[in-house]
Amino acid sequence: MPRRRLTAYRDRVRASLEDAFSEELPPHDVATSFSVGVFVSALPNLGIALVLFVALAYAFERVSKLALFASIVVMNPPVKWAIYAASFWLGSQILGPVEGASVSELSLSLGPEVLVRLLVGNVIIAVVVAVVGYGLALRLIRELRRRDIDVVDHIAEPFSD
């Protein structure tokens, strides 16, 4: 019984992966979807990015669900904390340091000065990461399609019987 359940689960995952990877979207659309996903994920969105991605995927047929999901994987919590730290540093470089605050006692309780620096730096970093992400995703997708690589077979292969 457990083996049959595991096999059924594996088959459902494989079918989902095949559907996602078989999206016949142009490379530009897939790369744009990834870029938008990275941009939104890099911003401090308090977890609403996933809800926004579901809405985007539902509303627009040219949005790559797989690319949006991949952007969430790329922007995992350790990466986001590094982006937030870099965002505050960049915002402080542009707007100047927060009066009377040291790095050891830095928190949002210090008020709008901290939040503004965080958001200014974060928007700049999110734009840069989105542009770089677009270029990398476009190159990867074109190369995968040029080589006619079936990604699903390579992912599912280790889990086959």
Question: How would you describe the overall organization of this protein?
Answer:
By secondary structure, the chain is mainly alpha-helical. The protein has one domain. The chain has seven helices and no strands.
Task: Give a short summary of the structure.
This protein is 73% helix and 0% strand. The protein is an all-alpha fold and 161 residues long.
Largest sheet: none
Content-based structural category: mainly alpha
Shape: elongated
The share of residues in extended strands comes to under 5%
Chain-averaged pLDDT: 80
Radius of gyration: 20 Å
* DSSP summary, beta strand count: 0
Count the helices. How many? 7
Element pattern in H and E:
HHHHHHH
Number of domains: 1
Helix percentage range: over 70%
Return residue spans where pLDDT drops below 50 for at least 5 consecutive residues.
Answer: none
How far do the termini sit from each other? 16 Å
Question: Secondary structure elements and their pairing?
Answer:
Blueprint: H1 2-21, H2 27-42, H3 49-59, H4 65-74, H5 77-95, H6 112-147, H7 151-156
Features:
single chain, 161 residues, mainly alpha, 73% helix
